[in-house]
């Protein structure tokens, strides 16, 4: 079994040499291609994947592009990983359609594909380890409506409109508002590409254009912190912020009272279940189409509860 130091060295080397063939004939090699490394979320996914790899005695690499806008770079990483003929592969798609030709080639070559976090518009993956993002965003909408008294204006800063997570979180929130809260108007949906700095500028523009805004929903870590930064920098008062994910900047904002609450996923569980499923797939075991890794809403009232602390990653 590889030590953590050796494994981390292999992961770091992957940034320079993408994909490395298995070092021993009897050792399963399972590369994971994520959306990126810019958020604490992905570091937590990696930690879960490493835990499962250690338990299963398999070798993994975990890599992704520098940011979540680099679809072409991610496709190149996927191609390089598949060229090493791995036993299975994990893939978190930045674009739900762009990778399908490569994934089809993997399936034709007998390489099981496990999607994680973000699925693809195809039945090629043997399973997808993910949060029920529509349900989670619907809960965020319910919490927003409760906090602003069931009426008013809100805006959404989403991370993208190409990945399944971006689409599902946006639409889960919008559909719930439309279905249940006729007195709440969504004035705009803007995209910050999951980047904290870009999301900050997007959120500031929204706040300036809508000075009477009651609430804002940020659909991932970068989006949510962008909203927090915008409110802080502009000195805006009275805007209810609901976030998604649970890096330290968000938990700090909740403890400060600047962010009302957020949805936390179970990123360690996502990484863990991805590797476990990949190993099972190499053995021909049946897998569910979706492995639901769960979600929770947290705020000042429950952030220190054991159940919530177990899924925070700050």
Structure commentary:
- The chain is an alpha/beta fold.
- It is built from eleven helices and twelve strands.
- The chain has helices at 4-14, 40-56, 71-83, 100-108, 133-147, 164-180, 196-209, 221-234, 248-256, 267-282, 306-309, and strands spanning 29-33, 59-63, 89-91, 113-116, 127-130, 152-158, 184-191, 215-218, 240-244, 261-264, 290-292, 296-299.
- The strands form two sheets. A six-stranded parallel beta sheet has the order 2-1-3-4-5-11, with helices on both faces.
- Strand 8, helix 8 (221-234) and strand 9 (240-244) form a beta-alpha-beta unit.
- 53% of the residues are buried.
- Residues 1-25 have low confidence and may be disordered.
Can you tag this structure with a few keywords?
disordered N terminus, alpha/beta, 314 residues, single chain, 6-stranded mixed sheet, 11 helices, 12 strands, 6-stranded parallel sheet
Question: What's a quick, concise take on this entry?
Answer:
44% of the residues lie in helices and 18% in strands. The protein contains eleven helices and twelve strands. It starts with a helix and ends in a 5-residue tail after the last helix.
The tally of strands reads 12
| Rg over C-alpha atoms, rounded to the nearest angstrom | 20 Å
Number of helices: 11
Mean pLDDT: 91
Distance from first to last alpha carbon: 28 Å
* Low-pLDDT segments: 1-25
Largest sheet: 6 strands, parallel
Structural class by helix and strand composition: alpha/beta
Approximate shape: elongated
N-to-C SSE series? HEHEHEHEEHEHEHEHEHEHEEH
The multimeric state of the shown protein is single chain
> Strand order, biggest sheet?
2-1-3-4-5-11
Content of β-strand: 15-25%
What share of residues is helical? Answer: 40-55%
